[in-house]
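JOB MANIFEST
job_type = single_chain_structure
chain_count = 1
residues = 168
[input]
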Amino acid sequence: MEQNRRPEKKRGRVLEKTIWDASGLRRTPCRAAVLRCLAEQSSALSEKELTARLAGEFDRTTFYRTLRVLEEKEIIHRIMVDPFTVKYALSAKLSKKTPHGHFHCAVCGKVVCLDDIDPVRYVLPTGAIAEKEELTIHGKCAACVAAEKRAALEQAQKHHQAGEEPQK
C-alpha cells in the first residue's frame, strides 16, 4: 500500500514545484496547504471549509492574503455561489480543465465543476472586451434529490400506517 502512495506524492511535489516556478511565487506553508486542500477535493471549498481543514494552522490575515495572491496569479479561481458565499477550486490551467461552468446544490451547498458543457458564444458590443466569464447552475444534486424522495416516502408510509390521507 505504501508503495502505491509514493508516486502520487512525488507527482504532487512535481506539480507544486511547477506551480511555484511558473507563477514566480515563493512556496509558503499556507500556500502549499491551501493548494493541497483544493487538490484533494472533487468539489470547490468555501473559506470556512478550507479553514476547518487547515485547523487553525495559519492566522486569518495570512490565510486571506494567500487566497488573494493565489487567485491573482490564476492558480485558484473563485466561484460566486450567491452574494454571500464564495468557493474556491484549482484554476482550469492546473486541473487540466478547459473553461467550464459549475453546478451548485442549493440543499447541501456542494459546488462541482461541469466539464462537459458546450461553450457559449456571445456577441459583445462593438469595442467591448470580455475579461471574465462565469457560469453557475443552481439546483439539487443527486444525493439531495434521493434524500428528499426517501423523506417523502417515509412520510407517506407514516401517514398510511396511521390511517391518514396522504398530504398533497
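[summary]
Confidence is low (pLDDT under 50) at residues 1-8.
Residues 2-23 form the longest helix (22 residues).
exit_status = 0
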